[in-house]
Amino acid sequence: MQPRKHEGTKKTKRSSFSCFRVFVVAFVLLAVVVRAGEPDLSVTPLARDGQVLVSFELSDGFTEEVRDAIQSGLPTTFSYDLELRHGTVTWFDRTLAAVTITATVRFDNLTRRYQMSRTLDGRVEDARPTEDQNAVRRWMTRFEHVPLSTTSTLEANGEYYVRVRAHTRPRNAWFFWPWDRGLVLGRAKFTFLP
Questions:
Q1: Count of domains in the chain?
Q2: The pTM of the whole model exceeds 0.90
């Protein structure tokens, strides 16, 4: 009679292990599906003419929900925090420079035009109207040669990286932002060669 009890224990262990494997596979698939729907932030740093310039683009951030919010007249802002960092042997990397750039758009239902503006650390850098929705998408998600720092603070042949964090600032609590649960991060390394 002892062998029968032992066989029952083996079946229970096999069944528990099979359930665990199914759970792990389901969890991994869910993580892949959730990650596939998230926007991506590509970053390209460039050290030229005494400055560190950063170009970046947020893909899949201009969703149908964002378009609907803009068309409703809701002021919509995408905010990007840029940091120039240097890795250290200690736990925390050193931040050498930081700037915040925001892109805001507001649709005027009477004139059927979009009012767009960009600020860099709170200063208005550019503002313009448009009627083209594709121009609005580019305005909100694509940035070329944003000045981040001078190269005078960098060491020759030093390893650095630029980190960009993107987030939204909705003006109305009823609106659901698809990727505002957490920040979208982008990062790129470079070696400074004077």
A1: 2
A2: no
Q: Residues 11, 46: one domain?
A: no
Report CA 165 to chain centroid distance, whole Å.
5
Q: Using alpha carbons, list the distances in angstroms from residue 125 to 58, 68, 93, 118.
A: 20, 26, 30, 6
State the Cα–Cα distance between residues 91 and 100, nearest whole angstrom: 25
Per residue, what are the HEC states of 39-81? CEEEEEEEEECCEEEEEEEEECCCCHHHHHHHHCCCCEEEEEE
Range of the structural domain that residue 59 is part of: 40-191
Do 5 and 76 share a domain, yes or no? no
Of 57-61, 103-107, 118-122, 165-169, the poorest mean pLDDT is in 165-169
Tell me: the pLDDT tens digits for 17-64?
454 444 433 333 333 333 334 578 999 999 999 999 999 999 988 888
